[in-house]
Design a protein that fits this description.
Layout: E1 2-6, E2 11-17, E3 23-30, E4 35-42, E5 48-54, E6 58-63, E7 68-75
Antiparallel strand pairs: 1-2, 2-3, 4-5, 5-6, 6-7
Length: 76
């Protein structure tokens, strides 16, 4: 199980449960703008995708767990 959190400090952090039951940061992804909201979906091939709305008026799509950019962004 993983917990994804976004922040205005330009990071998305991934936390995972440790053997003792606590959460530890296992990965930090740097975002050009602050992360306002995160949502998870699956694409047509059932691969996990993270949507990230940013303070720069954009929504980015990332493949999980690699955080590879899906080459699609929406600017509002």
């Amino acid at each position: 199980m993983r917990l994804y959190s976004g922040s205005m400090d330009h990071t998305i952090r991934v936390r995972a449960a440790t053997e003792t039951g606590s959460l530890a940061v296992t990965y930090t992804h740097n975002e050009d703008h602050g992360a306002l909201a995160l949502a998870g979906i699956q694409d047509a091939q059932l691969k996990p995708i993270l949507l990230c709305s940013t303070n720069g008026n954009a929504v980015h799509l990332y493949e999980l767990p690699s955080f590879a950019d899906r080459d699609w962004s929406l600017y509002i």
